[in-house]
Amino acid sequence: MKIVGIDLGKFKSVVCELNTDETKPQYDTISTTPSVICALLEKRRPDRVVIEIGSQAGWVCDTAESLQLPCQVANTNHETWQWRKTRSKTDRQDALCLAKLSLLEELPTVHMPSAKVRQKRSFIAYRQKLVQRQTRIKNGIRALLDRQGLRLPAGKSGWTRAMCQELREIAQRSGRSGRNGFVALSIVD
Q1: Other C-beta atoms lying within 10 Å of the C-beta of residue 75
Q2: For residues 165 and 120, what is the distance between their CA atoms, to the nearest angstrom?
Q3: pLDDT reported for residue 97
Q4: What pLDDT is stored for residue 46 in this prediction?
Q5: Which residue blocks in the chain are alpha helix, DSSP H?
Q6: d(Cα 51, Cα 112) in Å, to the nearest integer?
Q7: Closest CA to 59 of 6, 14, 107, 130
Q8: pLDDT tens per residue across all 189 residues of the chain
Q9: Could you say which of 56, 104, 151, 178 is the most buried, measured as most Cβ atoms within 10 Å of its Cβ?
């Protein structure tokens, strides 16, 4: 059985090929790009590809599966992975450990969702960040107004078109008069 363990890095990855017919594992360091990973897997044609969960795990798993190679994604939060707390941790050791644990059927794995599901989850997470950012901005504007003794209506009614227009007028008046050191606001609908 031939297992390829890949310790994925942002720019470079370490590959360990563990073959049960050979005594020593073979190592390579490669660029972490789809074309290089695909070429490596096409050339080596392992019985199994093993990687750690991480930001690149999705497309690497997709690449392996497109070549009809089984792919295991290791759960690095599992207690089996606690050996990582040793001082002499290297990428080569990580790649070898992935391959060995997979060979022994002791690798704690996680499910890798399809590309479509991962993309949808990414969009949802990004939208949540945008909503949080919008909320922080609105709260900042409210705080700025509170420091000037001005109040916005609570909730959504503070952000109607009419209120936004009123905020523009307040900002323009305050900018001209410099009253109480109030800084001009630029409100965008």
Answers
A1: 16
A2: 36
A3: 85
A4: 92
A5: 34-44, 57-66, 91-103, 115-147, 161-177
A6: 11
A7: 6
A8: 889 999 998 999 999 998 888 778 989 999 999 999 999 999 999 999 999 888 889 999 999 999 999 998 988 777 766 655 556 678 888 888 888 888 888 888 889 999 999 999 999 999 999 999 999 999 998 898 888 888 888 888 889 999 989 888 888 887 665 545 444 444 443
A9: 56
**Both tokens assigned to 73:** 């994604």
Buried b (16+ CB within 10 A) or exposed e, 119-157: eeeeeeeeeeeeeeeeeeeeeebeeebeeeeeebeeeee
Q: What are 64's two structure tokens?
A: 């392996």
Which position has the token pair 């096409």? Answer: 42
Q: What tokens does 150 get?
A: 């001005």
State the pLDDT at residue 184.
46
Give strand pairing partners of 3: 18, 48
Closest CA to 3 of 61, 65, 48: 48
Judge contact between 5 and 99, C-beta under 8 A. yes
Q: Residue 109, SS3? A: strand
Contacts of 77 (CB under 8 A, 6+ apart): none
User: Which secondary-structure segment (H or E) carries 26?
Assistant: strand 26-31
The contacts of residue 155 (CB under 8 Å, 6+ apart) are: none
Any long-range contacts for 173-179 (C-beta under 8 Å, 24+ apart)? 174/148
